[in-house]
Amino acid sequence: MRTTWKTAALVALAATVLGLGACGGEQQPAAAPDPSAAARQRVIDDANAPCVSDPGQLVVIENARHGLTAAWQTGQGDTGVVLLHQVDGGICQWSAFARLLVEKGHRALSVDVASRDAVEFAQAAVAHLREQGAKRVFVFGASRGGTIALAAAAGVTPPVDGVASLSAPTVYDADARAAVAKLPVPVVFAAGSNEARFADAARELHELSVSAHKKLVLPSSSRHGVGLLDDAMNTLLLAFLADPAAATA
C-alpha cells in the first residue's frame, strides 16, 4: 500500500507540472479593473441625455486637469461645432440645432458644461473634435454657454474657425470682455433686442471685439439664448459655418 501511495503522489505531481507547463508557467492573477475606465463609464451612465437614442453617441470629455464630463457626439464631416448650453440646460438643449447640423453634413458635439471648469471642458471639446478628424471647428454657446464659448476660444491654439454667442453675459464663470479683446477669429454676437441687459452685453462685447469679422444681431425678440434659434438665426449660423467672413460682412 505504501508503494502504491507514493506512485500515485508522483503521478499527481507530474500532472501538475505538465499542467503548469501547458499554461506557460505559473498562473497570473487577473488584472485589476482600470479605475479611469470605471470613472468614464459612470459619467456615461449618469449623463442626463433623454434626446440621445443611441448610447454609443455619448462620449466622455477629459479636461487638462483630468476632470470628466459627458457629451453627445453626432454627425460626420470636416466641420465640427461645439455646442454649450445655458445654465438651466444640458447636453440636449441644442438638440434641434445639432440635428440640423448633421443634416447639413457637419459634426455636432454638445457638452455638459455645468461645472465651474466649463472653459477647460469647452477647450477639451475642441481638441476632441480635431482628434476625431474635424478640420474646421466652431464654438457656439447660449447665455452662460456663450460667455464660456468666447473665453474658451480665446485660449485655444491653434485658433478655432469662429464663435457664435447667443445672449451671453459679459461675465459668468468667465470674463467675456477680456476674451473678445484678444480673440481675432470671426464672431457672431446675438441677443433679443427686448432682452434688456443681454442686448446691452451683446453690444458691449461687439464693440470690444478685436475681430476683423464680427457681426451684431439683435432681432426684435425677448427670447433668450437658444430661444433665438428661429429660421432666420439658423440660416445665419449655417452661413457662418460655410463662410465666416462673408456671413459677418
Would you count the extended β strands for me? 8
Question: Helical stretch count?
Answer: 9
What's the assembly state of these chains?
A: single chain
Task: Look at the structure and give the mean pLDDT.
Answer: 90
Helix content: 40-55%
Distance between the termini: 103 Å
Spatial sequence of strands, sheet with the most strands: 1-2-4-3-5-6-7-8
Rg estimate, integer Å? 26 Å
Apparent shape: globular
SSE pattern, N- to C-terminal = HHEEEHEHEHEHEHEHH
Q: Structural class, from secondary structure content?
A: alpha/beta
- Main beta sheet, described? 8 strands, mixed
Low-confidence stretches: 1-25
Please indicate the percent range of residues in DSSP E strands (runs of 2 or more).
15-25%
Task: Give an overview of the whole structure.
It contains 9 helices and 8 strands. β3 (79-84), α3 (95-103) and β4 (107-111) form a beta-alpha-beta unit. The chain is 40% helix and 18% strand. Residues 1-25 have low confidence and may be disordered. It is globular. The termini are far apart. α4 (118-131) crosses α5. It has 249 residues and is an alpha/beta fold.
